[in-house]
User: What shape does this take?
Amino acid sequence: MWTIPNIITMLRVALIPIFVTVYYLDWEWARQAGAFVFWFAAITDWFDGYLARKLKQSSAFGAFLDPVADKLIVAAALLMITHTYATVWITIPAILLMSREIYVSALREWMGQHGKSDIVSVSFIGKAKTTAQMLALIGLLSELEYFMGFPLYWVTLGYVLLYFAAFLSVWSMLTYSIAAWKNLTQSS
Assistant: This one.
């Protein structure tokens, strides 16, 4: 259990309350600092997977905890941007993203119980959705449109990527559902 990849994954879970606290601090750069903590946590997701493969330290605990850590920090970030922006234009894609995560997690669990987890394993669309979602959340959390007078358009890019992630989210959910449909409709 105490492998380097698992410790990094546990660090990502521990960063959630830090991320939320920093984001809501009452100082000028709190949102940007919170976005940085979120970015750091997102990077650890790639890093722990890389190290698990490189060091041959994959474990059942890591396979369980890694997606849980991802979903927890993304759920926190989605709730935070929904609260911060308080607009239907953020709320709708946030709900789509959260609904997909719950649906696909339940589908994977059900398929795993029936020995068919390979049918709904992570796909390229799912990975592309995760990348777009993480970048969107960093942009929206940061609230940066300008930095030292230079246009960055992070928030604008965040909106675009959030919608792209929502589109990929629905697409991947449908793809997984179609792949699993035969197994879901069989009589017990």
